[in-house]
Amino acid sequence: MSRRFLTAEDVRRAEGAELVVDAQTVVTPQAQEVAAARGITLRTSAGAWQPPAPDRGPDAPRRGEGLAGDHPYLDEPGDAAAGDSVVVTCVGRNRPGVLAEVTGAIAASGVNIDDISQKMIEDYFHMVLVLTMPPGLDFASFKQQLECLGAGDFVVRVMHEKVFRYMHRL
Length: 170
Prior knowledge:
This protein is an alpha/beta fold and 170 residues long. Helices cover 25% and strands 28% of the residues. It has 5 helices and 9 strands.
């Protein structure tokens, strides 16, 4: 099913007191504001225009259909299991010992570093690490331990790889 978008510019170009659109046309909020300000009525061949029901996203009626169990990374979020990947990002002002502080905390938890990338821009660094969780490690505790590092010099964020896979599934 194809959809058309009606923009504010489309409404500005319209002549007359009403604008007839297809029932599946997505009218932007800006177009709705312009139509209201100019007294233009939006309608379809069947009557008043109503926003179409979403076909994807959290408000879509079919949002969970066919997803559960189809893809292992779309399960309900929970603790990381042994062998799961975790992505750690660190950003902040560089100083001696930053890398040692972060990797030391990771090593103390028995987590393996699979990949690391670091970039320096003037006095600031950006580091991304991909880790593999060992058996029996509590993800929430590990995350809290790493995110408490830095003492104001830098910020650490820990995310399960499922977050990235879920964000980029569409």
